From TrEMBL:
UniProt superkingdom: Eukaryota
Region annotated Disordered, chain positions: 1-20
Sequence ranges assigned to domain Isopenicillin N synthase-like Fe(2+) 2OG dioxygenase in this UniProt record: 222-256
Keywords, sorted A to Z: Iron, Metal-binding, Vitamin C
PANTHER family named among the record's database cross-references: OXOGLUTARATE/IRON-DEPENDENT DIOXYGENASE
UniProt-recorded Gene Ontology molecular function terms: L-ascorbic acid binding; metal ion binding
InterPro entries: DIOX_N (IPR026992), IPNS-like_FE2OG_OXY (IPR044861), IPNS-like_sf (IPR027443), Plant_2OG-oxidoreductases (IPR050295)
Official protein name in the record: Protein dmr6-like oxygenase 2
Annotated ranges, domain Non-haem dioxygenase N-terminal: 65-167
Length: 338
């Protein structure tokens, strides 16, 4: 879920920033009044937004996402909604969810407090450590290029332990994120239940929703990621996020990967930036517990549909994301069996 957020970018000149300035992030650079995209943020021509050499699946302005009515998943037309959900997951890997019942004030509060967080001075934004991450790139010490974004990542597991470690400024941030995380966790569980049903792995009419497989989803991890994409003076040179697929089981945005044994798609997507408007977006990322092994569901493997992926875990993902191989192919591709 996202909303526009106006953050002025002055254009009073300025030279190429030093390495230490880059480490402070793109929001800090914009506040200094840059009028050119620094070299550190310029992506190679094949990866730039208007390049014809880029990944075509990451840029399709005519793509119309399917719409899933969450209310119908809870009503008498559930079977029809399940079929629509199955089609969306198989063909797209993304869908727009309507009538999800997350209160309007919960959404408005987290958007408002997120905007105010990124308006704080750099020193206030940058003082937090694990389980809080605030930065501009996945690995600011190793990445050749930086993304045109600032982010705040808040671990939500277990809430009783991590809540006191979340930023204390703005003063209402913790409560706003707490409300949002609880609502999205409920939504995640309801969608997961529906997705398992669409895969033929669960029948809620037989009260199987408390089986071991679903219980592991209930005990899974949650990460709230707040992104700030400031207005960019040269948006055709950079990206808010490069083409990627999310590593979890479900992001609100939704995608299922290894667990479905390739039956449900994981769509490559990227984030473009705007020359005149800044934007705040908020994602709730859900996965199995960090120490769990993710594997294709045995119920989806047979002679006609052989196993397509090797077992993996979150530690394997972290190791791969910091390796040189990650620049050549995605983590999901690296787990494919030949």
């Amino acid at each position: 879920m996202s909303a526009g957020a106006s953050l002025a970018v002055e254009t009073n000149g300025g030279n190429e920033s030093t390495e230490s300035e880059f480490q402070k992030g793109v929001k800090h650079l914009c506040e200094r009044g840059i009028t050119k995209v620094p070299t550190k943020y310029i992506w190679p021509i094949p990866d730039q937004p208007n390049s014809r050499n880029g990944n075509s699946s990451a840029s399709n302005p005519n793509l119309k996402l399917p719409i899933i009515d969450f209310a119908k998943l809870q009503g008498s037309n559930r079977s029809q909604a399940i079929n629509s959900l199955k089609n969306a997951c198989e063909k797209f890997g993304f869908f727009q969810l309507v009538n999800h019942d997350i209160p309007k004030d919960v959404i408005e509060s987290i958007i408002d407090v997120s905007k105010r967080f990124f308006e704080l001075p750099f020193g206030e934004r940058s003082k937090y450590g694990s389980p809080v991450r605030c930065g501009t790139s996945s690995n600011q010490n190793k990445d050749d290029m930086f993304c045109w974004r600032g982010f705040l990542k808040l671990s939500c597991q277990p809430l009783s332990d991590v809540l006191p470690l979340w930023p204390s400024s703005p003063v209402d941030l913790r409560q706003a994120v707490l409300n949002y995380s609880k609502n999205t966790k409920y939504l995640y569980l309801m969608l997961t239940e529906a997705i398992l049903e669409s895969l033929g792995l669960m029948d809620i009419t037989n009260n199987e929703n408390e089986n071991d497989e679903f219980r592991e989803f209930k005990d899974g991890s949650q990460l709230i990621v707040v992104n700030c994409y400031p207005a960019c003076p040269e948006p055709d040179l950079t990206l808010g996020l490069p083409p990627h697929s999310d590593y979890g089981l479900l992001t609100l945005l939704l995608q299922y990967e290894i667990f479905s044994n390739g039956k449900y798609r994981s769509l490559i997507h990227r984030v473009l930036v705007n020359p005149s408007k800044s934007r705040i977006s908020i994602a709730s990322l859900h996965s199995l517990p960090f120490n769990s092994v993710v594997q294709p569901s045995p119920k989806l493997i047979n002679e006609d549909n052989p196993r397509r992926y090797m077992d993996t875990d979150f530690a394997s993902f972290l190791d791969y994301s910091s390796s040189s191989e990650s620049k050549r192919k995605s983590f999901l591709e690296s787990r494919k069996l030949t």
